[in-house]
Amino acid sequence: MAKSSRSSKPSKFQKPRPDFPLTPHPSGRWCKRVKGQLLYFGKIEGDENGQAALDKWLDEKDDRLAGRKPRAKTGDELTVEDLCNHFMAFKDERLTSGELAQRTYDRYLATSKYIAKALGKTRIVDDLRADDFQALRAKMAKKWGAVALGVEIQMIRSIFGYGYDAELIEKPVRFGPGFEKPTAKTIRKTRTASGPKMFTPAQVNAILKHATPNMKAMVLLAINGGLGNTDLGVMTLDTIDLEGCWLDYVREKTGIPRRIPLWPETIKAVRESINARTEPTNSDDSNLLFIGKRGQNYIGNRTGYRVVQEFARVAKNAEVEGRAFYDLRRTFQTIGEGANDLAAVQSIMGHAAGNSDMSAVYRQMVSDDRLKAVASHVRSWLFDSDKTADEVDEKSVRRFRVVG
């Protein structure tokens, strides 16, 4: 029997525009082939511009691309996008009240956008099943390492947990056994495989030789006081006492106040950075300590990624491989503990005490002499083993050592 040629007959209808995602079928319906299946989205007659068909396609798109049969919606179901919007509105209140750091808010926002895209913005939360989260984790594991993966999984769980606690959904979401965080053993093996993430004195000094005034000051602040890239990106001019050689700074991530004694080399580098400072293009950045050569800030969506980018270029020129800017903070912690005063190191680092650390709860302050002793110990590690450090005012060096 001869096959029908109906499907090959050219259609008398045309797409309303070249980029229109649907195609007119000879049968007089809008259609689209998805995963090898031809799907129809209504008659063309009466919908020549394809708007009704397009609305239907967009409504079903996430389910269709995921290979799911779309469920009829009543308009009352909570979608993944709805949940994320409710969650971020809640976090926005905490941000406004000062109970949440901007950096943490931005992390939640990025995670919300990620799951809305990965699971589908229009996906009904009550329809999510364990296999959806297992597939999501597999996708996430290709993007992040074990530590970051664990953090993201926990954040996603908290978003859905909020939905239940806020009575947006009637029952807790069942993630299934395939959406667990990496085990402690896996994280340990990952860290062991990557090796110690710290600098040698020679590497730091090599980077200082190749650094711009801004980067030189940033590197010294990082190794002098355990400051991270975000800390430096949002740091303001009024936090540093150039005459007294102190940095009084509240760590944005934890809200912990930090008092850091600054080396003569660090003070000199900060002064040079300020003298070479470019006028910011945005007046809102006028109080920031570090401004790039084009007048831009180093914040970069409050992640300090511009610090990371510039550091990577300098490290490459200095032929220092396998090290990231944040490793300077790790190095300070590691070397600083050699001063045998962990409380002073943690105070400089801005670490938040654990709930079970009653000593930290009762400790009201760490004396300046103890802080200086830690900073002096790290300075000796960096410069006494390498005599290539820039010359500084010898009087200020002696003063630092005497009081340190």
Account of the protein in words:
The protein is mainly alpha-helical and 404 residues long. It has three domains: 29-61, no CATH class; 80-194, DNA polymerase, domain 1; 201-352 and 360-403, Orthogonal Bundle (hpI Integrase, Chain A). Helix content is 50%, strand content 7%. The protein has helices spanning 51-65, 80-96, 102-119, 130-143, 146-165, 184-194, 201-210, 213-225, 229-233, 264-275, 300-317, 327-336, 342-349, 358-362, 368-384, 394-403; strands spanning 23-24, 29-34, 37-43, 240-241, 246-250, 257-261. The strands form two sheets. It has a three-stranded antiparallel beta sheet, with helices on one face. The chain has a three-stranded antiparallel beta sheet with strand order 4-5-6. Helix 2 (80-96) runs antiparallel to helix 3, helix 2 (80-96) packs across helix 5 (146-165) and helix 7 (201-210) runs antiparallel to helix 8. The chain is elongated and about 85 Å long. The termini are far apart.
Order of helices and strands: EEEHHHHHHHHHEEEHHHHHHH
Number of domains: 3
Question: Number of helix segments?
Answer: 16
CATH homologous superfamily identity of the largest domain: Intergrase catalytic core
Keywords:
404 residues; mainly alpha; DNA polymerase, domain 1; hpI Integrase, Chain A; 3 domains; 3-stranded antiparallel sheet
Give me the secondary-structure topology:
Blueprint (H helix, E strand, L loop, with lengths): L22 E2 L4 E6 L2 E7 L7 H15 L14 H17 L5 H18 L10 H14 L2 H20 L18 H11 L6 H10 L2 H13 L3 H5 L6 E2 L4 E5 L6 E5 L2 H12 L24 H18 L9 H10 L5 H8 L8 H5 L5 H17 L9 H10 L1
Helix pairs in contact: 2-3, 2-5, 3-5, 7-8, 8-10, 8-12
